[in-house]
Amino acid sequence: MPRTRRRAGRDPVAIDDDATLHAMGYPRKLTRRFQAFDNFAISFTIINIISGIFSSFGFGMNAGGPRVLVFGWIGVSVMVLFVGAAMAEVASAYPTSGALYFSAGKLARRHKGAWSWFTGWLNFVGQVGGTAATGYAAATFVQAFLALQWTSYRPTAHQTVLITALIIVLQGLANTYTVRLVAVLNRISVWWLLIGLVVIVGALVVGPDEHRSASFVTHFVNNTGFTSGLYGGMLGLLVTSWTFTGFDGSFHMSEETVRATVNAPRGITRAIAWSAATGLVLMLALVYSIGDYTKVAGSAAPPVQILIDGLGTGGAKALLLIVIGAMLFCGLANLTSNTRQIFAFSRDGAMPGSRWWHSVSPRTRTPVKAVWLAVVCSLALVLPGWWSHTAFTAIVSVNVVGLFLAYAVPIFLRLRLGADFSPGPWHLGRWSRPIGVVAVIWVLLSSALFMLPQASPITVDSFNYAPIALAVVLVVATVWWFATARRRFQGPVSYGRPDEVAAMDLV
């Protein structure tokens, strides 16, 4: 169990947040308005079980069916909790907005700049891809709602891109204003998710005339086109993995969180645990409400078809509004996390135009320019969808792989450091190493799954572009590193001694 302990004159819990930040070499520029619940809320909202399950449920129906949807959810949730716990231990030791790339630079014995550089760019690309993909999913469900409301409405790729762009810009505007507003919206999002879950599950329990038998959870389906049932079932595990991304958001909000050395790691682990429990309830409700399996699995949006079959068009439309709201909150929180990573990465001089992106608005105390860089980058990823959905999928496919590889790097480096690692107040004690080992192994296995073919026959439209997208990111980052970056970026920088950086505080 995580616990606290005293280390060499250090108060294990009541550590001064500013003193901790100053000891890491940074002045305080951001406002600390996130309490423990707010920090939990951002990761819980980004994970977003309603958004994740509704977006990927159809894939799971064809890749393993109910058996993998339900039991795969349980197994993968446990593995993700291992990853989250190992990350949380690192977050307690290095509670900064830089999060993964900062801790990678600090934990590496050699080549600190390189470890930090590649971790930071994987994290950046993964988060930008996540913002774009979440906005696109929300736009898709908005159009599903419009098609139910007006039968003459025909969704098009152009409309999806335009709605996605509008959503991302509105989320950028929300992030432009104060941290207090973002915190309030994230609190609302938690209750939206929890109350929405109760409403959706309650409707699926009461509404349909018939439900599947208890044994239906063992039903196995392999419609992936591959003859191997084992391979098809393993692909189904991706449903849960797709959902459980973005919990590094609590880590990125450390510099705006009160008692961050404790509340940030708790935010990570609690968000995963609550998402695992509530997501299982939603998954079971959807699985037991499936009517005609072939009809539902073959529909454009299987969860929507389940709602229509069980509750009628009126009921489906009402619940779709809950789903769309959850997706909008998810994108908002994802953009917030992305912005803080850009702010911190720029503060250390790792991005072109760093001087711009780490500046903070004197009025709102938020990194406004970083917000709009994140918005522009996300819109750039969405734009290819104007011509081809396949092109859009290829570009954002690096989202999950990039994020989980970025998660694994500081955990791996912490393992290599061994007894030389100085944990923060929240740590895993003697369980630290075994949990870290399991976390790294799981990330490697799940990343391999993400890059394997996911449908047969393999065509231009069904090809999995994640390996190509990841290779492009790594090649660009590598060329850039050896060409110029290694001479100007040596990893996280220090702005001076604690007393010197304290004098630079802007808040």
Molecular structure report:
With 507 residues, this protein is an all-alpha fold. It has a single domain, classed as Amino acid/polyamine transporter I (Up-down Bundle), CATH 1.20.1740.10. It contains 21 helices and 2 strands. It has a two-stranded antiparallel sheet with strand order 1-2. The longest helix is centred in the middle third of the chain and has 46 residues. The protein is globular, with a radius of gyration of 22 Å. The two termini are 36 Å apart.
Précis, in short:
With 507 residues, this protein is mostly helical. It has helices at residues 17-23, 36-47, 49-62, 65-93, 99-107, 112-149, 157-176, 179-206, 229-236, 238-243, 249-252, 260-288, 293-297, 302-347, 354-357, 368-382, 389-396, 398-417, 432-451, 466-488, 498-502; strands at residues 63-64, 221-222. The chain has 21 helices and 2 strands.
